[in-house]
Amino acid sequence: MSEAVEGAPSEAPRPGLAMAPEAWLRVLAPVVIGLLVLGGWEWLVRAREIPPYILPGPIAIAQALVRDWGTLSASLLVTLKTTGLALLVAAALGLLLAVAFAQSRIVELSLFPYAVILQVTPIVAIAPLIIIWVNDVTLSLLICAWIVAFFPILSNTTVGLNSTDHNLLDLFRLYGASRWQVLWRLRLPTAMPFFLAGLRISGGLALIGAIVAEFVAGTGGNASGLAYRILEAGYQLQIPRMFAALVLVSGTGIAIFLALSLLSHLLLRRWHESAMGGGERR
């Protein structure tokens, strides 16, 4: 009996339990730093007796967020709608155009410089023109946000499609695979991590583009976004309310990044090294 016990293989540790300390560290370390910063901020405001119309403390900002939640949440939904639509359009057009670039070198050389022009042109400079040319305010905001979010997806996906292993390409051609089979079974899986990386970048950029466009448009009323609420609070010297709107903008950007990171992890965790947790880091 003892020999059977001694000869039995030892049970391997569960991956979930092995990753638990690292998972706790990922959550606790940022939380502790954030609490220390907020506590120091509140102490500085109270110790120096800084008036709230110059620099409100975290408690005053939280109170303003709760008090004006009805108005701010409605504006948040408007900004989220513009951001989500812009990101969706940027992802679809960026992927399709990147596939066209990968299939034809002439198409890439002809159109890629114009994509670069869109990227390097400041959205603040062209947003007033877009708002003037487009009669629909919602559509003009969507175009501005799309312009900002479009290029990272196009650029990253194009790099991914062109990074396919040439040995595998030769193997596919040796077996007589069609161009569609090469694209669907080889090039697109190779480009998937690049596409998702560009998507994570474009998520935050789409939000920035929507906010900047709302600043330029300056539209009020029920259909106004968070940028207008920031301007409105600034005009009325309601600085805690302004900071509350800024907290919503920052929180929305963080939520978008985390959601897209989770999507990337779910799609890549079973086959790509970037999401499989390999390697040791300290």
From TrEMBL:
Residues 76-264 form the ABC transmembrane type-1 domain. Belongs to the binding-protein-dependent transport system permease family. One of its GO terms (molecular function) is ATP binding. The lineage of its organism: Bacteria, Pseudomonadati, Pseudomonadota, Alphaproteobacteria, Acetobacterales. It is a multi-pass membrane protein. Keywords: ATP-binding, Cell membrane, Membrane, Nucleotide-binding, Transmembrane, Transmembrane helix, Transport. It comes from Paracraurococcus ruber. The chain crosses the membrane at residues 23-41, 82-102, 114-134, 140-161, 207-231, 243-268. The keyword Ion transport does not apply. InterPro entries: MetI-like, MetI-like_sf. This is ABC transporter ATP-binding protein.
